């Protein structure tokens, strides 16, 4: 019932079950995470692709489905009749298995990958030409954003791949897929990185960590307090990787995002994932009096997470204003609607 590729390099396009064969190719190669093909057979893709050496999240380009391996195109369907096309026929246990495998394949913050992580500080170099405190702070902010964005950006590819494996996701229209990924990326990423956050630091998947003070340079103290509080309270629940994956899928499948054309379809997929998380919590905590309280507690965390996502987007206004002063990864700029230089388009 749940078909999973054996390695990330085998992942292909995300095709809805009701697509026709009117797919077009622009000669743009997939970056290894494929396009997310729209429902209705338009052949328009959404996904992360490589254009002129730069990764881009696209919603209107015609993208060849499949992966490029060794210069040869490999057409490997990911979301097909055995998964996305029959999401309503999947049992709760099928959903648990599919989402759990998707999370383990595409999350760099699993317990296994972070268990022996070697942590090291992100050290800002001295700026010998700053003439004032304001100039020094701006230099630090620019440098930290460049370091932070470079480490966050690979998560876009992983979360796109994760989304493609969530039952029902490939049934959504192309535009709805793009909206869910763009508006939900930070919230899903924060859910993943939370296990490496404590009261004083945020550690990234390569072991580099930012201090609270550095985070306050990027954002402000109120936002950082809210972010750390969310992560620390989520960590108290002691979620397994399977539970984090299911919770992440719930966060992604937010049927009330602005601009969605088929919120009811998305809502049904979310209900399926929510039931799977509820079952997983109960069966992994047999006899625990806290088990029945955990699902409502997690549901209550989602509005808090949504608020953080909205505030984070607002904080990026500084980057949208000062984008000419620093070089951000094109994919990071794309997903957060930050202007890019002409040579990065």
TrEMBL record:
Pfam family, one: Hormone_recep
Main subcellular location of this protein, as a coarse class: nucleus
Domain NR LBD: 109-338
Gene Ontology MF terms: DNA binding; nuclear receptor activity; zinc ion binding
Superkingdom of the source species: Eukaryota
Classification via InterPro entries: NHR-like_dom_sf, NR_LBD_DmE78-like, Nucl_hrmn_rcpt_lig-bd, Nuclear_hrmn_rcpt, ThyrH_rcpt
Subcellular location(s) per record: Nucleus
Keyword list, A-Z: DNA-binding, Metal-binding, Receptor, Transcription, Transcription regulation, Zinc, Zinc-finger
Any one GO cellular component localisation term in the record: nucleus
Family statement: Belongs to the nuclear hormone receptor family. NR1 subfamily.
PANTHER family for the chain: ECDYSONE-INDUCED PROTEIN 78C, NUCLEAR HORMONE RECEPTOR HR3-RELATED
Protein's name in the database: Ecdysone-induced protein 78C isoform X2
Natural source organism: Drosophila kikkawai
